[in-house]
Amino acid sequence: MEIAFTPEQEELRAVLRGFLAEHADRRRLLDSGSPHDAELWRRMATGIAVQGLAVPEEYGGSGFGAAEMCVVFEELGGALAAGALLATAGLAVPALLACGDEEIKAEHLPGIADGSTIATLALVEADGSWDAEAARTTAKEGADGFAIDGTKYFVLDGAAADLILVTADTGAGTALFAVSGTAPGLTRRAHEAVDPTREMARLDFASVPARLVSRDPAVTGTALDHARIALAAEQAGGARWCLDAAVGYAKTRHQFDRPIGEFQAIKHRCADMMVAVEAARSAAYAAALTPHPDPAGLAVAAASAQICCSRAYTEVAAGAVQIHGGIGFTWEHDVHLYYKRAKTDEVLFGTPDWHRDRLARLSGITEEGTDGH
Amino acid sequence: MATDDATGDEAFRASVRAFLKEHAPGRPPRGAAERLAFAKAWAATKFDHGFAGPSWPREHGGMDLPFPRQVIYNEEMARVRVPAHPGTGWDMVGPTVIKYGTPEQQAAYLRPTLRADIVWAQGFSEPDAGSDLPGLRTTARRDGDHYVVTGQKVWNTNADKADMLFVLVRTGTRESRQKGISYLLVDARAPGVTVRPIRDMTGREHFCEIFFDEVRVPVADRVGEENEGWRIARTTLGHERSAGALTQAAFYRRIVDELIALARERGAVADPGVRRRLADFDVRVRVMNVHAARTIASIIATGEPGPTSSVSRLYNSVFEQELHEFAVDLLGPFGLLGRGDPDTVQRGRWTTGWLATRASTIGAGTAEIHRNTIAEQVLGLPRDPAMPPR
């Protein structure tokens, strides 16, 4: 196993970090009342073409791989910036690449690559399940094509998305469809999420015209696993920010005439936080940097990364709030944004126990069917 | 260039495999004395065939391998489960003598150490100097061309099997702390040396206490200058151990797989609590493997082991404890049976491991000391004024 970034990938990290330091502004976003920073999205596309990194060159992107996306998502997670990239590049792009339909790829990928299309995937329904094959939303085929009926929740960037990939039951199993953000019959309502940096929406479909993307449920499953790996990198980046913020504060905050970082109670918590951060980085890097020749290997990597990174981020974010003391409990300090993001991320693509059960099946701890799945 | 390296690496791997195929000694015998002789014989075989000391200079009998080949060497050795080098700390005292020893010390000790003709044990901790090692009180009084050593050491792993001891002694004033410590090589059978095994909580005798009563040690067996012992003992001695990090991760992988097999065998995995805990351990052992790979990649790229090497010890020791605590819980009442009970599970290995791993966060620096080190050395938090400089 080789876990190392190339000098070019580290250069990408440096460029991105500089760009985000200059242009990403969490407070502006918070004050604007919308998690989607259209200005930053545009700059990312025109300045450093982040949206097209994982899009193949023939569709207008630069054709990079999971390693580059890991760097990007780790840096975005550290800055709490550009949430729509996770839905667009983390979720929708892998689904489109896996669907095998050239026409659909040619229609949507160039717009994603140049930043004009925000895309997402709508899966979860009222039961909160992450099972990619159990949609209750229906797709009925008529003379003019398919029409979607049903309700999807927690759709990442669902209110801003121009392209919505949606799972629905055709009667012959769950398939994946493409719906325009402006399609007739589609009602979108942004959730009031606890995490103000992550836009999620409820989408109601009433005979919404849709185009079939793939009948293979593995397309959705694969896309979700890629998104979990991208999310893990975001989590590692966010956890690292929390550790740095806590350590920085502990060095400057004085009580009893000395920096609080001199006290072992603070030191040991910071050390434990670093242990968690490095675990998260290792899990996220391994998932992104090792090749996954088959879907099962990808799934193991995705589940492992989510189990490790979710725990690490929530633990480190809570530690950062604690070490900041009173100021950490205020709206004014950014640490609460990370604390909330950590919790959002923990359940975003499946809860920790859901991932544990899945990994138990995938790694041979349990056999298929023995845990009710 | 990279291709040449890769070709050379594979040829090297093949040569280690060929050596192991011909010479690996098979299953170890029963009995402590027999096992020691078995391990010594294997060390001698490696040495005599030029397969000992992957990181050591050739002039001292080593292989002088570049770091990536040290990793390959460790991988291949781990694959066949050959005995570990006998004694403890030989991989600390060896590099110390290589770096700071006189030509006479190097000639006298290095080759025999690598061949395990000399088996070593460490003599650092004392009853009143554990985490606060600079408070040690075993004294070495100068008498002509000898030191006269008096005092007591403790927690000396396998000292009862050792031929030689490497010992920190006080040569400065009582108050001199780390400024008055010297590093001596002491014959474990010299008159006045008494080694007594200590029974630990598992019931086994693994480590010892050592009494020095007016033991005469030649000044020629002092490593480095007088009163320079603290600095010498604390010097980072290369990255030899990091080359074995993947091996250690593979070892834990095997333990987790064995625990999973046990849980399945006992029908415990239908319990969501059990299978989820097992999934967590499964992830943690994967992370260990990645930590090792990152450490190795960092050494190769930058010469420095990077952040993962500083957290790995703490990560692994807490993991070991929690894994065994869970294993005992998993066994229910059978977890209470000792290794001698006829109804015990897998010869009591999980129960013994549960007890033995309490030492994981105590020995070789407590977890608290490691947390201080991470906080101060890596994260740059202010130093505790009460703590000695490194």
Topology (elements, then pairings):
The complex is a heterodimer of chains A (373) and B (390).
Chain A lengths: L6 H17 L2 H7 L5 H11 L17 H14 L4 H16 L2 H12 L5 E4 L15 E5 L2 E12 L6 E7 L4 E7 L5 E5 L9 E15 L2 H36 L1 E2 L2 E2 L4 H26 L5 H30 L10 H14 L3 H11 L11
Parallel strand pairs in A: 1-4
Antiparallel strand pairs in A: 2-3, 3-7, 4-5, 5-7, 6-7, 8-9
Helix pairs in contact in A: 1-4, 4-7, 4-8, 5-6, 5-7, 7-8, 7-9, 7-10, 8-9, 9-10, 9-11
Chain B lengths: L1 H22 L8 H17 L18 H13 L10 H11 L2 H12 L5 E4 L15 E5 L2 E12 L6 E7 L10 E7 L5 E7 L5 E14 L3 E2 L5 H6 L10 H21 L6 H31 L4 H25 L17 H8 L10 H12 L12
Parallel strand pairs in B: 1-4
Antiparallel strand pairs in B: 2-3, 3-7, 4-5, 5-8, 6-7
Helix pairs in contact in B: 1-3, 3-7, 4-5, 7-8, 7-9, 8-9, 9-10, 9-11
Question: What does this 3D model show about the protein?
Answer:
The complex is a heterodimer of chains A (373) and B (390). Chain A has 373 residues and is α+β, with helices and mostly antiparallel strands. Chain A has three domains: 7-113, Butyryl-Coa Dehydrogenase, subunit A, domain 1, CATH 1.10.540.10; 119-215, Beta Barrel (Butyryl-CoA Dehydrogenase, subunit A, domain 2), CATH 2.40.110; 219-362, Butyryl-CoA Dehydrogenase, subunit A, domain 3 (Up-down Bundle). In chain A, 52% of the residues lie in helices and 16% in strands. Chain A contains eleven helices and nine strands. Chain A has helices at 7-23, 26-32, 38-48, 66-79, 84-99, 102-113, 217-252, 264-289, 295-324, 335-348, 352-362; strands spanning 119-122, 138-142, 145-156, 163-169, 174-180, 186-190, 200-214, 254-255, 258-259. In chain A, the strands form two sheets. In chain A, strands 1, 2, 3, 4, 5, 6 and 7 form a seven-stranded mixed sheet that branches. In chain A, strands 8-9 form a two-stranded antiparallel ribbon. Chain B has 390 residues and is an alpha+beta fold. Chain B has eleven helices and eight strands. Chain B has helices at 2-23, 32-48, 67-79, 90-100, 103-114, 229-234, 245-265, 272-302, 307-331, 349-356, 367-378; strands at residues 120-123, 139-143, 146-157, 164-170, 181-187, 193-199, 205-218, 222-223. In chain B, strands 1-4-5-8 form a four-stranded mixed sheet. In chain B, helix 1 packs parallel to helix 3, helix 7 runs antiparallel to helix 8 and helix 8 packs antiparallel against helix 9 (307-331). The two termini of chain B are 40 Å apart. The A-B interface holds A 1-4, 243, 247, 250-251, 258-259, 261-262, 264, 266-268, 270-272, 274-275, 278-279, 281-283, 285-286, 303-304, 307-308, 353, 355-357, 359-360, 363-366, 370-371 and B 260, 263-264, 269-270, 272, 275-276, 278-280, 282-284, 286-287, 289-291, 293-294, 297-298, 301, 307-308, 310-311, 314-315, 368, 370-372, 374-376, 378-385.
